[in-house]
Specification:
The chain is an alpha/beta fold. It has helices spanning 33-37, 44-66, 85-102, 111-125, 166-176, 184-190, 216-228, 232-244, 250-255, 259-287, 302-309, 322-325, 330-342; strands spanning 2-7, 12-19, 23-31, 75-81, 106-110, 134-139, 144-150, 154-160, 291-295, 317-318. Helix 4 packs across helix 13 (330-342).
Length: 359
């Protein structure tokens, strides 16, 4: 059984064909990073326009690469939320059109659930399936959530960010210190060259739900550090490097980043990773988790992967491959298989839901 997945919630237009919930036959992603980089972040209207340009060729390429004809599909799965409403509408409208024209059932999928299924898909394929109950940490530029995942893919929200998402904090700090957009990957490249304990960062104690996250205070602490250490000229040098070379090498980044700034970068990343894993560990203990799932764009972070592997948690920690960590359509197709098995299809009146929750 094959499902075509379509994803367009933010700035990647993606399509994929997944077979039997485990085998990715094709996964095509058209990224918009190059366009949004000059604006320092995703511009929603531009993202929607790029989705309109890319959606047809991306879906066509996914079908061709998988050797699948439209009539061979068991269902068409599409992201309906959360995300940017204009971006969501492009993928959803095209999926509806394909469903209407072919008579193939439509399945609406939650983007966050897709990130969880990216891990479940690969763990099954690799012969090490996730055991339940599991604790899922979904961390990206738009989301930082903790979910209890039980048999039958039932979810319970345990904690979430009250302000900035973890990936958003990485990118904002990266932009602040002249690393461009997206700043998270550059921070991860430079962090091993600094002392992670050089700058002491603290997090406010959360009132109410102690499993919630808050990263805005950390971002402000970095801003104050930058102001105190008069880094204007240094930051200008890194921005000049980006203008001259849009994709600097590691050696180029190091040449314009003094040791004190490397220490700041390493300390910032260390603080974010500690906060993510500490709250995930507390949540896992609370529910008696038998596995930890870490997914979303922040799951690409090598520091996070190394810290999770060496945490001695007492249960397996599952990360997706790098290709399925960031937004993709294979995870959307994978999340649709349980609904296909239950015959839970969506009508053509299904709407985009930019604030869709997972519960």
């Amino acid at each position: 059984m094959r499902i075509l997945g379509i994803e367009s919630s933010c700035d990647e237009t993606a399509a994929a064909v997944v077979e039997d919930g485990e085998r990715v036959l094709s996964s095509v992603v058209a990224s918009q990073i190059a366009m949004h980089t000059k604006y320092g972040g995703v511009v929603p209207e531009l993202a929607s326009r790029e989705h309109l340009r890319a959606i047809v060729p991306v879906v066509r390429e996914a079908l061709t690469a998988s050797g699948t004809r439209l009539e061979e599909l068991s269902a068409i799965a599409v992201t309906v939320g959360p995300g940017l409403v204009g971006a969501l509408l492009v993928g959803l409208t095209y999926a509806k059109s394909l469903s209407f024209g072919s008579g193939i059932p439509l399945i609406a999928v939650n983007h966050i659930e897709g990130h969880i299924h990216a891990v479940i898909l690969e763990s099954r394929r690799d012969g090490h399936p996730v055991e339940y109950p599991a604790l899922a940490l979904v961390a990206s530029g738009g989301h930082t959530h903790l979910f209890e995942v039980r048999e039958g893919f039932r979810y319970r929200l345990l904690g979430k960010t009250r302000d900035d998402a973890a990936g958003e904090a990485f990118d904002k700090v990266g932009k602040l210190i002249g690393l461009g957009y997206p700043g998270g990957p550059v921070i991860d490249r430079l962090a091993p060259f600094g002392n992670p304990l050089a700058v002491k960062f603290t997090f406010a104690k959360m009132k109410g739900n102690t499993l919630d996250f808050s990263f805005s205070g950390l971002k402000t602490a970095v801003l104050r550090w930058v102001e105190t250490h008069a880094m204007e000229e240094e930051i200008a040098g890194r921005r000049a490097l980006l203008r001259e070379s849009p994709h600097p090498t590691l050696e180029q980044w190091l040449s314009v980043t003094p040791q004190r700034t490397r220490d700041l970068i390493a300390s910032f990343q260390h603080a974010v990773i500690h906060e993510l894993l500490a709250r995930a560990g507390s949540a896992a203990q609370e529910i008696g988790a038998r596995a930890l799932i870490v997914s979303g764009g922040v799951a690409c972070n090598t520091g996070l992967r190394a810290a999770a592997a060496g945490s001695g948690a007492g249960y397996p920690v599952h990360f997706p491959s790098l290709g399925l960590s960031t937004d993709n359509a294979a995870m959307i197709a994978a999340a649709a298989f349980p609904r296909l098995a239950r015959g839970e299809f969506s009508g053509l009146d299904v709407k985009a839901q930019p604030n869709l929750a997972l519960a």
